[in-house]
Amino acid sequence: AHLDRIGEVDGAVHAFLHVDAEGALAQAAESDARRAAGKPASALDGVPIAVKDVLATEGLPTTCGSKILEGWVPPYDATVVKRLRAAGLPILGKTNMDEFAMGSSTEHSAYGPTHNPWDLDRIPGGSGGGSAAAVAAFEAPLALGTDTGGSIRQPGAVTGTVGVKPTYGSVSRYGLVALANSLDQVGPVTRTVLDAALLHELIGGHDPLDSTSIRESVPDLTDAVRMGATGDLTGVRVGVVKELGGDSQENEGWQDGVQARFQEAVDLMVANGAEVVEVSCPTFVHALATYYLILPAEASSNLAKFDAMRYGLRVLPEGIIDPSAEDVMRATRDAGFGDEVKRRIILGTYALSSGYYDAYYGQAQKVRTLISRDFDAAFAKADVLISPTAPTTAFKLGEKLDDPIAMYLNDLATIPANLSGVPGISVPGGLAEEDGLPVGIQILAPTMADDRVYRVGAALE
Ligand code: GLN
């Protein structure tokens, strides 16, 4: 049924870069046999899933939305993909994304944009717009995304789906083509909070192949959802972050309809017994600047491996009879990388160059510590923090494409969590009055307290 649905709507939505109908049907048949024998491999055995094209899938193309990886077929599975296969989830295909996960609209994909199923003229968020749109358009019941600065939560918000960024280190990054190693996390994209919990429990937990993997198991998330689903939030202390859309006086650029839905969510929590306090995290206003030094620095280093020798594309330079390796590398990278990727390579290389390292990267690392301290102080007063996920609803395709700063501002509320490693969820919070488009509510919790975001998320659902 999902393959049929993809056939019907994906021409218009363009959530997928690659559909593996044959593979998915074979996996589904195996699952049918297991379940008929009363031996399902997991609670999600037989439930199909779409995978963001930044995760290595053995035998299936993996492009990261880039021309430079066109034609590359990984010889191995990412750990999370391996776990999906072992749990019996048929893999429907690979979803579209901003090139190397850089962007907030999926318009930076080298293979054309994904369209928001709510309004095809609008963006589905990014970088994981393909995964979110596939789930929102009923092309897949579940998807995997990755969140380095908001790429699961912001697409979730603008497509009316649920997106979770787990605690940094609690889900393996092995086989995830790194954007920024110290920020990246794999997580679920679903239509309900319970679905997200089931998927998260399946992909999470220690992996010896990832050196930053935490040696603790993930908390009981489905139980947290059960608790939250009663709606009762008695005794839960909820912190509204003043700097993240919590105070309309101080937060210019936040859409009225988004703030109205957010306020409604806060009121609902109070009505259900939560204690709401206002918290201030003054360093969060520097999060975007900090992120845009750390991320390009790490990304420029990661992308150096695309040297025209090891993976995918190789372009021979024109007019050079006997090109050197460097000539081939230059021609390949020139043709293979898009503008946003080149912009960040230049920024990152500059920030890391000798003489500037302390002034930029070193300074950004210090501010990063201050942001974590603001989180610590806020979590001393509140069990969870809450904000709108994104400042606006889905904007029009093309609207911010020529204005990188305007594009970056979409992640104002999601980036602090990546800088400090804490978990976060975005749950649908209703539709904005002025445009009838989905609004996302973000809930953040302390490191390894992912169960709290599920409990409160389920209560708001
Ligand atoms: N939009 C942010 C960026 O462009 C976040 C990306 C992400 O989370 N992968 O870097």
UniProtKB/TrEMBL annotation:
Catalytic activity: L-glutamyl-tRNA(Gln) + L-glutamine + ATP + H2O = L-glutaminyl-tRNA(Gln) + L-glutamate + ADP + phosphate + H(+)
Any Gene Ontology biological process: translation
Enzyme Commission number: 6.3.5.7
Keywords, sorted A to Z: ATP-binding, Ligase, Nucleotide-binding, Protein biosynthesis, Transferase
Catalytic residues (positions): 52 (charge relay system), 127 (charge relay system), 151 (acyl-ester intermediate)
Molecular function as annotated in GO: ATP binding; glutaminyl-tRNA synthase (glutamine-hydrolyzing) activity; transferase activity
NCBIfam families: gatA
Assigned protein family: Belongs to the amidase family. GatA subfamily.
Function, as annotated: Allows the formation of correctly charged Gln-tRNA(Gln) through the transamidation of misacylated Glu-tRNA(Gln) in organisms which lack glutaminyl-tRNA synthetase. The reaction takes place in the presence of glutamine and ATP through an activated gamma-phospho-Glu-tRNA(Gln).
Subunit (UniProt): Heterotrimer of A, B and C subunits.
Listed name of the protein: Glutamyl-tRNA(Gln) amidotransferase subunit A
Gene: gatA
